[in-house]
Amino acid sequence: KFDRKTGKKTTLTTFESRPLGLKFDSLGNIIVLNGGNGGGLHRVSKDGKVEDLVTEFDGKPFGLADDVDIASDGTIYFTDATDKFGFEDNSYDIIEQRPNGAFYAYDPSTGKTKRLLDDMYFANGVALSKDESYVLINETAKYRVRRYWLKGEKKGTNDIFIDNLPAFPDGILRDDKGIFWISMISPRTQELDDLLDNSFMKKVLLRLPKSMHPAPVPFCFALGVDENAKVIHNLQATNPTFTSITNIVAFDEKLYFGTLVDNAIGRVDYPK
What we know:
Layout: E1 18-24, E2 30-35, E3 40-44, E4 50-54, E5 56-57, E6 60-61, E7 65-70, E8 76-80, H1 90-96, E9 101-107, E10 112-120, E11 123-128, E12 134-139, E13 144-149, E14 158-162, E15 167-174, E16 180-187, H2 190-196, H3 199-206, E17 220-225, E18 231-237, E19 245-251, E20 254-259, E21 266-269
Antiparallel strand pairs: 1-2, 2-3, 3-4, 5-6, 7-8, 8-9, 9-10, 11-12, 12-13, 13-14, 15-16, 16-17, 17-18, 19-20, 20-21
């Protein structure tokens, strides 16, 4: 827990592996996606007690449970980025470019989980639209955001919300102004694009230690798009001291950034 006014940090609870997506439910509990062995969807009470909600689907454990959003009716939407690789080996999934990810819905009233989308390319951030007619899911390995329709004539279908992004999208959250904030963990490069289009070189890379895989480019990059997928804000920093943004939260005319590589929280003024 981080107190914005005092800067004081306290530990609410701990996990043996990586807690990734976080979201408060209507009762003030924290719904956590834990991307590790034995991980999955968990509920953390205000006093730090952890309750496992679901850790597998059809008898198969989640590989890298990643991000979450919660609808007004309590339904929890979440992703499993890949059911083949764990957190420490996630670069293999990006290089392999195989649809190992999936998107799920969990009903806390029944305890049942439904798979809504399969064959996703590193299913990552999750964000509901304001009217909850659809939900957006980042596909990191394909540089795009997918949309799954929850209501209306298109209910149960999906399409591409925004494609050919200039970087790897990680987290996505909608703010009170109706802007979807997409955190871009690393810009794409021509060298990497050429590599991922070369099946022979991909096979070579997959046989190498992950220390020899292409490393993320240090960069600070965030996009704010409206519900028509129009880019409203394009935030980039050259020579940044805070890089590899994985999540963005808008609050009180500020944007708060999470990161994969630092032990700090970033903050900037909400753009005009």
